Amino acid sequence: MPKTEGLHELYYEHICSITSKTDVLESDITGNGFVINLKRKWCDLFLLSYEDKRTRNYYTSSHAIRLERLRQFRHCIYRIHPFSKFRNFWDFLIVNVFLCNKILQHHNTSVILVTNTIIPYYIGIFFEFIIILDLFVNMNTGYVDSESREIILDLKKGLVRYFSTKLFIHVASAIPVQVIIFLKYGRNSYCSLCKANILISVLRLLSIIGLYRVYETTTYCNRNRKSLKAIHLHNFLRIILISFFTMLQIVNFSDTVSLLYILVNDDIDRSSHYGYLLKMSYKSSNSISSYKKIAYEFLRVCKSLVLFSVRPLKKTYYLDLIFSLMAHLIANIFYVWCLLECYDFFCCYKYTNDHIIMNVKSSADLVKSRKLPEKVYQRVVKYYKSNLSKMTVVKWQNCLYRSLPDILQREIMLSCYRGYIMRIPYFCDWPVSVIEDIVVMLKEKIYLANDIVAEPWIQGDGLIIVDAGELAVYSVDDEETAHLIDGDYFGELSLITDKEVRTSYVVTITDSQILTLDKGAFRMYMRNHTDLFFKLKHVLKKKFSDIDSTE
After folding, report:
1. Is 438 exposed, middle or buried (0-12, 13-18, 19+ CB in 10 A)?
2. How do residues 73-111 score in pLDDT, each as one tens digit?
3. What is the pLDDT of residue 422?
């Protein structure tokens, strides 16, 4: 089936095939020394990162990543790549800073939570400085074009998009309330009477815009999560965070509106919840401590989420009823969100068929939205209906299999596929340890009936072994020459040379599962077993030379 051309140009003799490409930081920043290495590390922080797993969705190879880094370094050096190390760290930092600042802002602007120290304001000012700095970081960061799936680093396009979509909300949520209080009152910022005015109350009301940033920044929770279990776990964590800070904002909103009502009418309704809190804070002979007030505020937030009530008195004030109803409605939204997440969780882990049906439906939606041909959708449906695909879904969603230690999963794989490798004449006398390592390198692939597995005049990617199904071999003249069944193999010549050219088609007759041994991974591994590699080279060279001479 394969045809040989220049067998002498093999892997160990062809230097270009094993020489790695040079990164732009190595080629453009020449020299050695502490300063040069520091400069390389500094520039590497803002370039596209090799380690970010999101790059797999946009760049097909490490070579494409190197080209993108080269383009960014030479043409957009002052821009930050959205998949850079710095951006990944900054997203982690900003989500923690923003959440902590929301808590500090509520504490430092509250008339009820009285403190005798200025330290919380210094911390809050530092957090607000980072949030303002985040505006400039976002302006200098590229973005992902969802339509073309390209990373846009152009400064003008990036600014236009940021100004037209997010600037207003980001600026409104970055209003430095604690800085304004500190500039106006200085070291007396913790004075409760200083904060009981319309200006501070309006700023507290504007802080509700920051809920959008809470929703936006907490998307970091699901970044780079591999397993479905981790994804759902962090989804629940995100729901908890968003619900807590939403209820904290409702408590903040209710206190602010009640304070404005008192300032405008110059009167305190004794039946109101806020009036009760003021009485406990200032007029009670046994006033509670600051720590107890903070604990009580925390319980207020939890109570509004769980019990849908903020009323400690027998007679309910009408504003308290409105706020309780608001908390009740919003809390139910979060409960529905949790129920949907639970439903998705159980569907993914318990009901494989339902999961397949949902995947088919999602594929249909994708075909319609992307305006793909109908035959693409039909092939997707056919794939999910095949028994091989169902076995794959069961394997990766089965809790028993996934809970097994890695060493047991390795043993299962060895038991399934070791026989295939040992039946191949080239490997039958190799050491068992080497055969086991080769088995671990095998990759499973599923092909539907009438799929083309191999084409003529194209180099092979490695050794191909039939695990299940039946394949047919056709010549370039469309003549059927052979059939391949379980255990048959082809493409072994590509393991040792890049000059292999196929002269036949290999087409699946039934739905089939094949095992592939990638030639790149095989060659890298065989660097530690050069004697075996050259023995394999000699055997294959002799075999195919005899075939060519016979023909």
Report:
1. buried
2. 999 889 999 999 999 999 999 999 999 999 998 888 888
3. 84
pTM score: 0.60
Q: How many CA atoms lie within 13 A of 273 on its CB side?
A: 21
Is residue 83 classed as helix, strand or coil in its secondary structure?
coil
Q: Which two tokens stand for residue 485?
A: 């069944």
**Do the Cβ atoms of 460 and 433 come closer than 8 Å?**
no
What would the DSSP string read from start to end of 14-49?
A: -GGGTPPPPPHHHHHS---SHHHHHHHHHHHHHSBP
The answer to whether 369 and 361 have CB atoms below 8 angstroms apart is no
Q: Which residues pair with 48 in a beta bridge?
A: 84
- Structure-derived torsion over alpha carbons of residues 37, 42, 43, 48, reported in degrees to the nearest 10: 110
Closest CA to 345 of 189, 231, 480: 231
Across-strand partners of 473? 482, 506
Mean pLDDT estimate for the chain: 80
User: Which pair of tokens denotes residue 377?
Assistant: 């959708």
What secondary structure letter does DSSP report for 285?
A: T
The answer for residues whose C-beta is within 8 angstroms of residue 251's C-beta and 6 or more apart is 106, 297, 300, 301, 304, 310
Taking a C-beta distance cutoff of 8 angstroms, is the pair 217, 94 a contact? Answer: yes
CB 101 within 8 A of CB 124: yes
Token reading at 33: 């020394």
Q: Which pLDDT score, from 0 to 100, does residue 6 have?
A: 40
Structure tokens at 345: 């969780």
| Amino acid (one-letter) located at 391 | M
- Tokens 């590390």 locate to 41
- Can you tell me whether residue 452 is helix, strand or coil? strand
Token pair of 80 as six digits: 């930050």
The token duo for 267 is 């009167």
Angle between helices 119-139 and 85-108 (to 10 degrees): 140
> What's the half-sphere exposure (Cβ side, CA atoms, 13 Å) at 417?
27
Please tell me the total number of residues recorded for the chain in this structure: 551
CA 137 to chain centre: 21
Task: Please report which helix (H) or strand (E) contains residue 202, including its range.
Answer: helix 198-206
How far CA 241 is from CA of 9, 223, 227, 442, in Å, comes to 60, 16, 21, 42
d(CA 145, CA 170): 20
Coil, helix or strand at residue 518: strand
Q: What is the pLDDT of residues 260-275, one digit of tens each?
A: 888 888 777 777 777 7
